[in-house]
């Protein structure tokens, strides 16, 4: 008789589909112009797309080892907490809440507005167009927030299917059309001397690479579902290689198609490259492109909003930000307060720059965090710290190379574009200062008066949010960290519970995968 629990697990094909479906999305319609503007050649832009695929594949392998070694949900934040690097974990948690998710949502909303305006042929003066696009993006965000407030699952699920169809259709339409003109119409003029006028300077190269990696974002998705995969030691490596190779081929094919039809000046003059492509090749049918891209962007916006609100709510449940944000609507499990907070932050962040600038903010923050996370993995490996016995272990050279890649990109970004890096560095520094002053148990929390005042404010604000949003706050119960490593904790690693500070007790509340 077959094992029902085993039969319900994800096989190789399911894991490949999971990777491809999670990564291929709005990025391919957002970042091609940014990459071309930095490297200034078709050939080098294709190198960037291939290199980004290889880096993402390597990162995916490293995170699978980390996720199977330390079986905690919460991603990088949970791993840094496990290492007891609490100040670093708190600082990067601040970046996740204020930059990573909000800026991603802002980029998607701005791109949606751009495609709608270009597709509808709306032309306004510069100031009016700026505010009209902002208001259109904000209106869409508010509608999606309302849907998520009431967890309209049937509608959201059906729309997700429509968004997936639009994503596949738009991508295939671009590839088939571009290669048709290349093969049957002999449009090769834009591919002659593909590396002519290339910009090889480290700064622009890394900026272009950040834009390419933004399109591959989500490569760590298997890290969050290792326990749902059948025979993970075989399935996960194979699915990563096959899935990332498929995505790399798709992205390179799409960009070849763009380059066949559009010259570099034409790409640089368009903020909606897929529309410029369609107008030059599809004639009267060009209207289908902005419609399909707009639909898939709505799906991407909803996915980002869903993930970001759950991240905020999880951080609040663990006691790191006010407990009012942890509130869940009892009738539909919607984190309403977290949704509102995330959207308000996203709206504010959208005024910090254009999509290219926001992508740089996100990339610097993400890859700085990944450098620290890789250093945690290397520390575990070199120091022989306890890890889960059923982990997937890579050759040590792979996490070393990935750590070097992450660190190099971050350092070059700081040297070449300090203004963009300063935003992430400033929030990191602010997070450390907040931790030291307001969280560290030897600072303000050591005073009883401070603890009483903050407890009172937290309780009153939580009650207020409960009434306004009809939610119930949640808190994570205490759980031994040794569960995360399958009981592999050595005697030397055990710490008596009476020696654990209140701070460590709070930060140790990371839920299992």
Automatic annotation (TrEMBL):
Chief localization class? membrane
| Record's bilayer topology term | Multi-pass membrane protein
Which UniProt keywords are given for this protein, alphabetically ordered?
Membrane, Transmembrane, Transmembrane helix
InterPro entries, A to Z: AA/rel_permease1, AminoAcid_Transporter
Pfam families listed in its UniProt record: AA_permease_2
**What are the recorded GO MF terms, alphabetically?**
L-amino acid transmembrane transporter activity
Its annotated compartments are: Membrane
Extract the Gene3D superfamilies matched here.
Amino acid/polyamine transporter I
Name the domain of life this protein comes from: Eukaryota
Which residues lie in coiled coils?
Answer: none
For this record, an example GO cellular component is: membrane
Regions that span the bilayer: 12-30, 42-64, 85-103, 135-152, 159-183, 203-226, 238-261, 281-301, 392-415, 421-440
Q: What PANTHER family does the record point to?
A: AMINO ACID TRANSPORTER, AMINO ACID TRANSPORTER PROTEIN 6
- Protein's name in the database: Amino acid transporter
The organism encoding this protein is: Caenorhabditis tropicalis
